[in-house]
Amino acid sequence: MAIADAGYHLIIGDRATELGIRAVESIKAKTGNMNVEFVYLDLGSFAEVRSFAQEISRRTQIVDLLINNAGVMALPTFRPTVEGHDSQFGINYLGHFYLTHLLLPLVKKAPKARIVMTASSAHYGTDKINYPGITDRKAYHPSGNYCGSKLATVLYVRYLARQLAQSHPNITVNCLHPGACHTNLFKHSLLLHILTTIGFQWLLRPASRGARTITYLSLSEEVEGI
To answer: 3-state DSSP call for residue 37?
Structure first.
């Protein structure tokens, strides 16, 4: 909402088409910004990621703010993406990595630009990535693969920030932990779903509060160049 309030031409990518369209109409109504659009995006398919990036290239010549915020957590069993990767690692990291790679030429055209990626403090839950578990269901570990996807995100952001600081210092790259928020992120685990809906819901932040850090990294002058 704050991004639209700031006057951006906002393009929302999501695979939940109906929800995405409703979100766009709600944002338009609440902010008065009519330059808000929805484009279908499935981060679990490299072909769909390419299609999304191509559509963005048709709609705009520059991207001055890229927010990667999709997430899947606690899948109890191995669920492959189109390419056969574990959906947690495939969506949380590989899809975002590929999308960023494809849109980077448009980001580089902006006078000033920011890339913001949602990570998680869960990356502290592992000191290595479970590479076999990314493609092998026998090696899959629900929490280990999730933590690994967030560790990969943090490592990629650190790498990208260093690279762009040399070649394009006008681009700021950051990741964040939004806190434990009351969203549908826990829906794939029956235990976590029960705990977060009827047990420990009071411990969770509302989604709007979790979004504050994303908004801060996206818009605040305090983090420009950091």
So the answer is: strand
Catalytic member of 93, 140, 146, 156:
146
Rounded Cα distance between 69 and 139, Å, is 27
CB neighbour class for 169 (10 Å; exposed up to 12, middle 13-18, buried from 19): exposed
pLDDT tens profile 17-38: 898 899 999 999 999 999 999 9
Give the phi and the psi of residue 129 in degrees, each rounded to 5: -95, 135
For the purposes of burial, counting CB atoms within 10 Å of the CB of 220, is it exposed (0-12), middle (13-18) or buried (19 or more)?
A: exposed
Q: Tokens for 81?
A: 């993406």
pTM, two decimals, is: 0.86
How far apart CA 3 and CA 57 sit, in angstroms, is 20
- Reported as a single tens digit per residue, the pLDDT across 72-93 is 877 889 999 999 999 999 999 9
Known catalytic membership, residue 124 = no
